Amino acid sequence: MHVTIIGAGLGGLTLARVLHVHGIPATVFEAEASPMARMQGGMLDIHDYNGQIAVEAAGLAAEFRGLVLAGRQAMRILDQDGNLLFEKTDDGTGGRPEVQRGELRQMLLDALPEGTVRWGCKVSRARTLEDGRHEVTFGDGATVVTDLLVGADGAWSKVRPLLTAATPEYEGSAFVETYLFDVESKHPATAAAVGGGSMVAHGGSAEDGINAHRESGETVHTYVALSRSLDWFAAIDFTDPAAAADRIAAEFDGWAPELTALITDADTDPVLRPHYTLPVGLRWDRVPGVTLVGDAAHLAPPNGEGANVAMLDGAELGQALAAHPGDVEAALAEYEEAMFVRAATPVDDAVLLESLFGDDVPESLLALVRGEEG
Length: 374
Ligand SMILES: Cc1cc2nc3c(=O)[nH]c(=O)nc-3n(C[C@H](O)[C@H](O)[C@H](O)COP(=O)(O)OP(=O)(O)OC[C@H]3O[C@@H](n4cnc5c(N)ncnc54)[C@H](O)[C@@H]3O)c2cc1C
Fold this sequence. Notes:
Layout: E1 3-6, H1 10-21, E2 26-29, E3 43-45, H2 51-57, H3 61-67, E4 75-79, E5 84-88, E6 98-100, H4 101-110, E7 117-118, E8 123-128, E9 134-138, E10 143-146, E11 148-151, E12 169-180, H5 183-186, H6 188-194, E13 198-202, E14 209-214, E15 220-226, H7 230-234, H8 241-250, H9 257-264, E16 271-277, E17 290-292, H10 295-298, H11 306-323, H12 328-344, H13 349-357, H14 363-370
Parallel strand pairs: 1-2, 1-11, 2-7, 4-13, 11-17
Antiparallel strand pairs: 3-6, 4-5, 8-9, 9-10, 12-15, 12-16, 13-14, 14-15
Helix pairs in contact: 1-4, 1-11, 2-11, 6-9, 11-12
The chain binds flavin-adenine dinucleotide (FAD).
Flavin-adenine dinucleotide binds near residues 7, 11, 12, 302 and 304.
């Protein structure tokens, strides 16, 4: 068996690594030209109930522990005036250690045999051949034919159409992403407001807010969350970064300056990241020789689980293939059934809130975080 994986994100690379651990060869075709082609985004908290299980399956627990940034599980919740509503320190025992996404991806790349990932191979389409195998076509016209094709190619998967006609739709909200560098020296008030881990600032609604995270060194990474239509965002000229930042900051008029500075004083241009989703509960009939992992299978709004679940998908698919030598269909059926159930099951609010905040949080604050009217 040789597995053809499309996409070298966390899902595809975890699959390739777990297959390697079990002696099953794989090739990963990735659109980007190199591991450094693009900034890999910010911090990820990797959970003990999904992402860390995948790390264990990949045999990389020690390497993972070496990437964990101490103190980043601390959390602060502020109101729009900058008043502290809740604070949790990081005593090192939490179940959601934080790592840099780029370093986690590199850890997986370093654990694969040389040449496993083929960079600069962007898939343009995939089709089923008469003999049941699948043919993948790349942007330059080259093709690959495979017995087992796995789409780990994210939101806009080119493999997904082999299984379902579902396509992502705009969910109604977006992040605007900014970075502040050298916060201690250049933005001490903002550094103090964010603290050593993550900071969530809410106004009157749970939908709009400013979420910031202390990354490695003196960098603060911000997602400004706004529930607005795509037309509303389209009216903002993001090619004029200063005007775009001012327009976004205007939605937070009257908020504490140490919070709005995360938008107006940013060292990077604001980047719009609209949230698209696939239908919750999406499933498909088994198609021989092809399946999906991660966002390609169950794209959800950012809820802190996506990368974790993509890794768990990859790990479980790799383990299922190893557990059913000579019977790929049994492996795919077993993997998909568990994946469908997991993706259709909403994150349990109570479990999530307790894992984030512990069990001593005032009910009024929980209501705010849950989005309930006061
Ligand atoms: C703003 C934002 C913040 C988020 N924050 C978090 C968080 O804090 N915690 C968390 O767990 N999740 C978070 N997520 C979700 C998380 O990023 C995704 O769920 C996760 O990356 C999915 O992994 P994946 O491997 O399935 O797909 P991806 O990470 O999207 O990887 C897909 C790979 O496939 C490649 N590819 C795409 N198309 C092709 C093609 N045609 N041919 C070849 N290669 C292709 C891409 O270049 C990419 O390398 C966030 C998402 C967003 C948008």
